[in-house]
TrEMBL record:
InterPro entries: PPR_rpt, TPR-like_helical_dom_sf. This is Pentatricopeptide repeat-containing protein. Keywords: Repeat. PPR repeats lie at residues 235-269, 270-304, 305-339, 340-374, 375-409, 410-444, 445-479, 480-514, 515-549, 550-584, 585-619, 620-657, 658-688, 692-726, 727-761, 762-796, 867-901. It comes from Quercus suber. Belongs to the PPR family. P subfamily.
Length: 938
């Protein structure tokens, strides 16, 4: 009675609130008129109700009513009164009348109370299916749940009450539950419980099961707690639901505890319970424990069923233990159980994810052979699997097959195909698939839009990616943070940071809160672009919004500062990360090790390496590689012994050395001049099958620098015998070494050989030959080779220009030298001062002084320093021809650029006077040069 009283009082109060108003005398006449009308209407309704009630007693009641004028008098109030007046008569006839009257009133809404009368009356006669239908229609009126419950409970009071009360409540809970209105179902249950109406355990268990299935965990615990409060004793199915709920929220320990407690309370778990626990353990990764539980079932007289085995197969497949999964399948057959679609689909999915497509297809054929028809899920697994392994044509074949046997593809079928075509940049095929989806009236899901946006970002079409996002929002789909993160990352990768920031800020406008992944995408990109201050701004914003930075956030800053050589800041962020309880990964440790190595701080590098091992982080080959490279590459001591100790340690840590490690050590040995050890390492590399061209290049270079050209050439031939292809670096090393040794013919042979093998020489190769020809005095060959190089589109560098310029000077072709210098200056390059020395010396010999002054100014402008002998020769040349103006200008330039110290000026003047042709020229020079000297001393 408590619930009825509460609900009725709520109903009365609501009506009172609606009626409450300030009295208005003007409304008096209207109220009187309305009351008079109401009395007349009520009298007519009563007469109609009596007529209908009399006719309902006859078998041909419908004909009687339809042949009268009663249909015109029908209204919801009349129907309600008829039902109430005849509630104890034939409920089925009343239901028929109710349906007929609804159609007569044009399908208009019936009085809510009419539904209640019918439902209660039908339950009194145990016509529960009919009662359920009535309550379903009652719910479809979309009246509030409390209003519906209030109507039913008032009807119970008006009808005198009966044992059917609980059944009506149970059926109402069931109706709401089956229609998916779980909130309303829980409300009915809780309100009924508070009013003393306790639904049976079956009803409670059904509600609990559906709540778990729909992840309605908050409502689940409300119902379960309500059951315990009402002293409803849980049974094995209740406990099974509770265990399932705990597994859903990943509370594995809690689930284990409930299983133990239910047995203690005398409730023996059945196969369903064990299946729930086994399924939960498999999903949480505890597959071995699930197998132990399955074994224990036999001791309790329980036999694992098809679901038990299928769950274990799925669990093993999730852990990539595919051979064990096949053994479980065999065991199923051995115990007389036939695997079902779920079992086979789990296996197919497992093998497809591992790229074992042949085995997946074999299992598919086995399914068909056992009479199991593939469904949409299985076909989607196959399509997705083939797309992941890159066999898109086979995926299309599977798609055609499923359509041919009458299985309609859904959006999930097309999504992996679209993704694969985007990966292969086949945009026409993507368009065709989207068109086919449109023809089939398949709307893209958030997942599909995510694939499209990711694909467009991958193809660099960021503008269209933005448009797709806008189209998605306009179509009523709300993007999630994952999708936004993809778009932000796409813009960041193209260095479009302003747009990435705009998208991040626009998320909130669309009701999506940025997560750590969104911020990380931006922060990582900014750190890579060396925009550390901007990255810090977003780190602060991220923390202010309650998001916790993770190892990727800190890793971005640590890596950024390591690359910038700011190791103090890198170490500070590393310490802060550890203080926040974030465990560092191998990538972060490797960045720190590399950073300290590059700074030459091997002590700190080893400190980071030791900390890595202490924290249980397994170094990978990259970690060892940077440390080994650091020992000889950046450290002045070149500690090769320590590097080899690390090499010996690697196998014990489960990290096999790779070609990069060996190449680094070979390089280190070569730099240290230990060619014997370097050679031994290279043979070891060949034996292990990962000898590389780069490692042999280091070895050949080492022998060449040691002057052992014969051994270097033998290595070159050995390299070819081992099917290792020499590259342009290999040939350049040999060409350079032969040229330096004066063996230009051998160098030429290698130069021709590399081109026959379609290995293009680069600027270093040509420069090596220039040096060789220049040293041998073969300058014509040098000039011809230079022209050939330029014709091939290889841009000369400063060294090449310098060598050619020097050769022109030696040949006395000063015009070509001057033109070359002009070309170099136009290109913004800087020539070696030796070229200027040689050119100025040659010009002075030819008395071409205007060009000399021009060259002097150009050389000084490029920051070059001419030596004192060149300056002396220049001054002597000016004095010799009596060109005192230019002598003064030249000396001024020399002093301005700091080529001639003030202490040497007097000496230069005196030397010039001694070579002067006349006393007049000497007197002039004294006056002009003294002025310059005074300026310098000032």
């Amino acid at each position: 009675m408590g619930l009825t009283f509460a609900l009725r009082n709520r109903h009365v109060l609501a009506k009172a609130k609606r009626r409450h108003h300030v009295f208005d005398p003007k409304s008096l006449n209207f109220c009187t008129f309305s009351h008079s009308q109401s009395q007349t209407s009520t009298k007519q309704n009563e007469d109609t109700v009596n007529e209908i009630s009399a006719m309902l007693k006859q078998m041909n009641w419908q004909c009687l009513i339809e042949s009268s004028d009663i249909p015109k008098k029908l209204n919801p109030e009349v129907v309600r009164s008829v039902l109430l007046q005849n509630k104890v008569s034939n409920p089925k006839r009343l239901l028929h009348f109710f349906d007929w009257s609804t159609s007569q009133m044009g399908g208009g809404p019936q009085n809510l109370y009419s539904f209640s009368i019918l439902a209660v009356s039908l339950c009194n006669l145990r016509l529960y299916a009919h009662a359920s239908g009535v309550l379903e229609r009652m719910v479809m009126t979309q009246k509030p749940v409390l209003e519906i419950l209030d109507s039913i409970l008032r009807c119970r009071v008006d009808c005198g009450g009966s044992n059917c009360d609980v059944m009506v409540i149970e059926i109402l809970v069931d109706v709401y539950r089956k229609m998916g209105f779980l909130n309303e179902a829980v409300t009915v249950f809780l309100e009924a419980k508070n009013g003393g109406f306790l639904p049976r355990l079956l009803c409670c268990n059904s509600l609990l099961k559906d709540l778990v299935k729909c992840n309605g965990m908050e409502l689940f615990w409300k119902v379960y707690d309500g059951m315990l409060e009402a002293k409803i004793s849980p049974d094995v199915y209740t406990y099974s639901n509770v265990i399932n709920a705990l597994f859903k929220v990943r509370n594995v320990e809690g689930a284990r505890k409930v299983l133990f407690e239910m047995e203690e309370k005398g409730c023996r778990p059945n196969v369903v319970t064990y299946n729930v626990v086994i399924g939960g353990l498999c999903r949480s990764g505890a597959v071995d424990e699930a197998f132990e539980l399955k074994k224990s079932m036999a001791g309790k007289g329980l036999v694992p069923d098809k679901y038990t085995y299928s769950t274990l197969v799925d669990g093993l497949c999730r852990q990539k233990r595919l051979e064990e999964a096949k053994l479980v399948l065999e065991e199923m057959f051995n115990v007389g159980l036939r695997p079902d679609l779920f079992t086979y689909t789990a296996l197919v999915n497992g093998f497809m994810k591992e790229g074992k497509v042949e085995e997946a297809l074999r299992i598919k054929d086995e399914m068909v052979a056992h009479g199991i028809k593939l469904n949409l899920v299985t076909y989607n697994v196959l399509v997705s699997g083939f797309c992941k392994v890159g066999d898109v044509e086979k995926a299309r074949t599977i798609l055609k097959e499923m359509i041919a046997i009458g299985i309609t593809p859904d959006t999930q079928t097309f999504t992996p195909l679209i993704d694969r075509y985007y990966q292969e940049k086949k945009l026409v095929e993507v368009y065709d698939l989207l068109l086919e989806m449109k023809k089939r009236k398949l709307e893209p899901t958030i997942s599909t839009y995510g694939v499209i946006i990711n694909g467009l970002c991958r193809c660099g079409d960021l503008q269209r990616a933005n448009s797709v996002l806008e189209q998605m929002i306009a179509g009523g789909l709300k993007p999630n943070a994952v999708l936004y993160s993809t778009l932000i990352k796409g813009h960041v990768q193209e260095s479009r940071f302003d747009e990435a920031i705009r998208i991040l800020k626009g998320m909130r406008e669309n009701g999506v809160l940025p997560d750590a992944f969104c911020y990380n995408s931006l922060i990582i990109g900014l750190c890579k672009a060396k925009r550390m201050e901007d990255a810090k701004t977003f780190l602060v914003e991220m923390i202010e919004r309650g998001l916790k930075p993770n190892e990727y956030t800190y890793g971005a800053f640590i890596n950024g500062y390591c690359k910038a050589g700011e190791m103090q800041l890198a170490d500070r962020y590393f310490r802060e990360m550890l203080e926040c309880g974030i465990v560092s990964n191998d990538v972060i440790y490797t960045a720190l090790i590399d950073g300290h190595c590059k700074e030459g701080n091997i002590t700190e590098a080893f400190s980071a390496f030791r900390r890595m091992l202490e924290q249980g982080v397994i170094p990978d080959v990259q970690s060892y590689s940077v440390l080994i490279h650091g020992l000889y590459g950046y450290c002045k001591s070149g500690n090769l012994m320590e590097a080899f100790r690390l090499l010996d340690e690697m196998p014990s840590k489960g990290v096999p050395p790779d070609c990069f490690i060996y190449s680094a050590l070979v390089n280190g040995c070569c730099k240290a001049g230990d060619m014997e050890k370097a050679l031994s390492l290279s043979h070891e590399m060949v034996q292990k099958g990962f000898a590389s061209t780069s490692s042999f290049n280091a070895l050949i270079d080492g022998f060449c620098k040691s002057g052992k050209l014969v051994e270097a050439n033998q290595l070159f031939e050995y390299m070819i015998d081992k099917d290792l292809t020499p590259d342009h670096v290999t040939y350049t090393i040999l060409i350079d070494s032969y040229c330096k040794a004066g063996l230009v013919k051998e160098a030429e042979q290698h130069f021709l050989e590399m081109q026959k093998k379609n290995i293009m020489p680069n600027i270093v190769t040509y420069t090596s030959l220039f040096c060789g020809y220049n040293n041998m005095g073969k300058r014509n060959k040098m000039f011809a080779l230079f022209e050939e190089m330029v014709a091939r589109g290889i841009e000369p560098n400063e060294m090449a220009y310098g060598l050619i310029g020097d050769a022109y000077c030696k040949e006395g072709d000063l015009m070509k030298t001057l033109k070359l210098v002009d070309d170099v200056l136009v290109k913004g390059m800087i020539l070696d001062s030796e070229i200027y020395d040689a050119l100025i010396y040659s010009l002075c010999k030819k008395e071409n002084f205007p060009e000399v002054l021009k060259l002097l100014d150009g050389a000084g402008g490029q920051g070059l320093t001419l030596n004192l002998p060149t300056c002396r020769a220049l001054i002597h040349g000016f004095y010799k021809v009596g060109n005192m103006d230019n002598a003064a200008k030249a000396l001024e330039i020399m002093i301005r650029f700091g080529w001639v110290p003030a202490s040497n000026i007097s000496g230069l003047i005196n030397e010039g006077q001694s070579v002067a042709n006349s006393e007049k020229s000497v007197n002039i020079s004294k006056q002009e040069i003294s002025g310059v000297a005074c300026q310098a001393e000032a």
